[in-house]
Design goal:
The structure is a single chain. By secondary structure, this protein is an alpha+beta fold. It folds into two domains: 161 residues, Neurotransmitter-gated ion-channel ligand-binding domain (Acetylcholine Binding Protein, Chain: A, Distorted Sandwich), CATH 2.70.170; 117 residues, Methane Monooxygenase Hydroxylase, Chain G, domain 1, CATH 1.20.58. Helices cover 37% and strands 21% of the residues. The strands form three sheets. Strands 1, 2, 4, 5 and 6 form a five-stranded antiparallel β-sheet that branches. Strand 5 and strand 6 form a beta hairpin. Helix 1 packs antiparallel against helix 2 and helix 2 packs antiparallel against helix 3. The protein starts with a strand and ends with a helix. 10% of the residues are buried. It is a multi-pass membrane protein. Belongs to the ligand-gated ion channel (TC 1.A.9) family. Glutamate-gated chloride channel (TC 1.A.9.4) subfamily. GO terms for molecular function: extracellularly glutamate-gated chloride channel activity; transmembrane signaling receptor activity.
Length: 382
C-alpha cells in the first residue's frame, strides 16, 4: 500500500565557512542553482519507494546563502511513499500515513534534525482528494538506533479519513438492491420455473461479479474486512433465495405426486358407528341396550332382542363418563398454523414464509452490522 505526494522541501542550516559581507545591508543573500557547490546534509526519505525532481522549464531548486552563514535549500519533489494500512474497517476506516526523513551517514553526534518553530508543515488550502479527506497532521521525531550508531529522524503523520459516500453509492446500495430483487421470486408463481431460475442465477452472478471487482481494487490481506462481511452476507442471501426455489420446486412436485396417487387410488368407504337414541321401552332396567326390529312380529324378533353393543360388566357408568368429559379441554388454536392453513400446498407455504423470513433477517443483519462498525469507528476516532 502506498500513496503519492508532491511537495516543496526546505531545510536550513548554519555553515560559518560561508559568511560574507552584506555591504551595509545592500546584499540580502546569494542564490545558487548547483547544490554540489556547498556542503549539504545527507537527508533521505526512509519510506520512499520512488521519486523524481522537477526540471521543467528549469530545475525547480535553489540555494540561498545569507551573510551570517545560514543556508536555505529548497527543491520540488514528487514521491511515492509506502503506507501500511489496516483495512479491517474498510471502507469505514481512517489511515495514518507517514513521511520520514532521516540522516543516512551522519550520527546524532555530528548532525541533528530539528523542526522549525511555528508551523513547520504547510498544506495547501482547499485540498481535495478523490476518496480521502486530510483531517490533520502531526510532527514528531523518530530517531533510529542501529549497530553503527544513532541517526536523527523527523516524521510527519498524515491522518486521512476515507470518504464513505462513494462506497455507499457504488457498493452498499447496489448490493441491497440485488438482494431485494432476488426476493421477487417469492412472489412469482411456483410453476414459472424459467422466470424464477433466471432471476436467481442472474442476481447471483451479478453479486459475485461485484464482489470480485471490489476485491480486485484492494491488496490481498489475511484478515476479514468490513466490506467482505457485507458482500459475503449479501451473496448468501441471494444464494439462499435460489435454494429456496429449489425447495419450493421439490415440494410442488411432491404435492403433485400425492394428488395423482389419491386420484388413481381413491380411499375406500369405511363403515362408521353412530350413536342411536333408543326409546325407553327398549332399554332394560340393567342399563343394557337391546336393539329390536320393529314392524315384524315373529320368532326372529325375539332372537334379535339381545345385547349387541356392550354388556353391563364392561360398561362405564354415566357418572364416570360425565367426570371424564369435564376434564377434556378444547385445543387452543395456533394463529400461525391457522394462517398457514389458508394455503393448501407446502410449496405455497414455503414461499409465504420466505417473504417474511428473508426481509426480517436482512434487517437484523443491517442493524447489527451498522451498529458494530459505526461504534468501532467512533472508538478509532477517540
Amino acid at each position: 500500500m502506498e500513496y503519492s505526494v508532491q511537495l516543496t522541501f526546505r531545510e536550513q542550516w548554519l555553515d560559518e565557512r560561508l559568511r560574507f559581507s552584506d555591504f551595509k545591508g545592500r546584499l540580502k543573500y546569494l542564490t545558487l542553482t548547483d547544490a554540489s557547490r556547498v556542503w549539504m546534509p545527507d537527508l533521505f526519505f526512509s519510506n520512499e519507494k520512488e521519486g523524481h525532481f522537477h526540471n521543467i522549464i528549469m530545475p525547480n531548486v535553489y540555494i540561498r546563502i545569507f551573510p551570517n552563514g545560514f543556508v536555505l535549500y529548497s527543491i520540488r519533489i514528487s514521491l511515492t511513499l509506502s503506507c501500511p494500512m489496516n483495512l479491517k474497517l474498510y471502507p469505514l476506516d481512517r489511515q495514518v500515513c507517514s513521511l520520514r526523513m532521516a540522516s543516512y551517514g551522519w550520527t546524532t553526534d555530528d548532525l541533528v534534525f530539528l523542526w522549525k518553530e511555528g508551523d513547520p508543515v504547510q498544506v495547501v488550502k482547499n485540498l481535495h482528494l478523490p476518496r480521502f479527506t486530510l483531517e490533520k497532521f502531526y510532527t514528531d521525531y523518530c530517531n533510529s538506533k542501529t549497530n553503527t550508531g544513532e541517526y536523527s529522524c523527523l516524521k510527519v503523520d498524515l491522518l486521512f479519513k476515507r470518504e464513505f459516500s462513494y462506497y455507499l453509492i457504488q457498493i452498499y446500495i447496489p448490493c441491497c438492491m440485488l438482494v431485494i430483487v432476488s426476493w421477487v421470486s417469492f412472489w412469482l408463481d411456483q410453476s414459472a420455473v424459467p422466470a424464477r431460475v433466471s432471476l436467481g442465477v442472474t442476481t447471483l452472478l451479478t453479486m459475485a461479479t461485484q464482489t470480485s471487482g471490489i476485491n480486485a481494487s484492494l491488496p490481498p490481506v489475511s484478515y476479514t474486512k468490513a466490506i467482505d462481511i457485507w458482500t459475503g452476507v449479501c451473496l448468501t442471501f441471494v444464494f439462499g433465495a435460489l435454494l429456496e426455489f429449489a425447495l419450493v420446486n421439490y415440494a410442488s412436485r411432491s404435492d403433485m405426486h400425492s394428488d395423482n396417487i389419491e386420484k388413481k387410488y381413491p380411499p375406500s368407504e369405511t363403515e362408521q358407528s353412530t350413536s342411536m337414541d333408543l326409546p325407553s321401552d327398549q332399554v332394560e332396567p340393567d342399563n343394557s341396550s337391546n336393539f329390536a326390529m320393529t314392524g315384524y312380529d315373529g320368532p326372529l324378533q325375539h332372537s334379535l332382542q339381545k345385547p349387541l353393543v356392550r354388556q353391563p360388566e364392561d360398561t362405564m357408568s354415566m357418572d364416570r363418563m360425565e367426570h371424564c368429559e369435564l376434564h377434556m379441554q378444547p385445543r387452543k388454536k395456533n394463529c400461525c398454523r391457522s394462517w398457514l392453513s389458508k394455503f393448501p400446498t407446502r410449496s405455497k407455504r414455503i414461499d409465504v414464509i420466505s417473504r417474511i423470513f428473508f426481509p426480517i433477517v436482512f434487517a437484523f443483519f443491517n442493524l447489527a452490522y451498522w451498529s458494530a462498525y459505526l461504534f468501532r469507528k467512533e472508538e478509532q476516532d477517540e
